Amino acid sequence: MNELVAVIMAGGKGERFWPKSRANHPKQLLPIVSPGTMLQETVERIEYLIPEKNIFIATGESLSGKVKAQLPSLPEENIILEPVGKNTAACIGLAAIKVERKYPGSTTMVVLAADHLIGEREKFLEIIKTGAEVAEKTGHLVTLGIKPTRAETGYGYIEVKGRKLNVENKNEIEVYKVERFVEKPGKAEAKRFLSRGNYYWNSGMFIWKVESILKSIEEHMPELFKGLETIKDSLGTPREAEVTRQVFQKLKSISIDYGVMERAKSVFMVESNITWDDVGSWLAMERIHPKDDNGNVVIGKFEGIDSHNCIIINDGHLVTTLGVSDLIIVTTPQATLICAKDRAQDVKKIVKKLADKKQEEYL
After folding, report:
1. What is the rounded CA–CA span in Å between residue 228 and residue 322?
2. Which of these, 3, 14, 69, 270, could form a disulfide with 26 (CB 3.0-4.6 Å)?
3. Whole-model pTM?
């Protein structure tokens, strides 16, 4: 088996989790779903399969100190710093050349997000092992597709058409050739996907040989590949940080899904029938935490009268409500959010408005 490494992407801003998530302390560095932070939980989960020396964290330069503080035993050279955020394609490409330098030869790379909720750890790790086997034996790109449990419009989908790959594993995990990737659907289309049974949520988790992803980037994103080659020549020299910055500033912001996965000729999907949530907005709290008798999710001090189906996240002082329904209320010492639940995806618009007004103290 190839050397197995994990790259955990931890550079997002988490703007839909404002005001708890801030630029200098985003969602992945917060204890959103458990006592540990989401980043710590992600590392702890994968450590059962991949040793800490083989775990890499890709994050923004401004977050490096906090990542080190949360993961004090992680080798410092395993923290990959992006000078500016340019989406997941550039992040993954940079990680690939760094991994390649540390582990020259045949290396298999598991790409995870730092802010996902994942249950059934042992089964998840078997899914990873199955995906790694497929990536190593075929040389193709592999993604994890989550078996959907509801007609979700907030996720992209993966369509498969019954072409299974023979892979032996103790949990009878199925592997399919991907037919196509589908953008986030409307409600009617999401219901159709759920009923069809051959559509899966696009988890944004990937497995591939380092040489395979770099070859795919060269084929489908030649400008990015050229930039990575320039960075590669500077690795380990005093020029590395400056060269990386110069290259990143010129790159387009493109996701790995759009830049590579949707264009690649042969992609395989490992069916992942596990509890999973991308924890993409405050609405995720309803799926993660129990509700009271009035359908409210409450974390912190709260008293309500005739208040139903609300999400209340409270840092300190008492929050009270009277005669309200379907609201998100999040308090912090610096700012409070009150939002209709059906506008949860638009919280990032508030962040943009604050940025436009240069109210940096609230960002």
Report:
1. 56
2. 14
3. 0.94
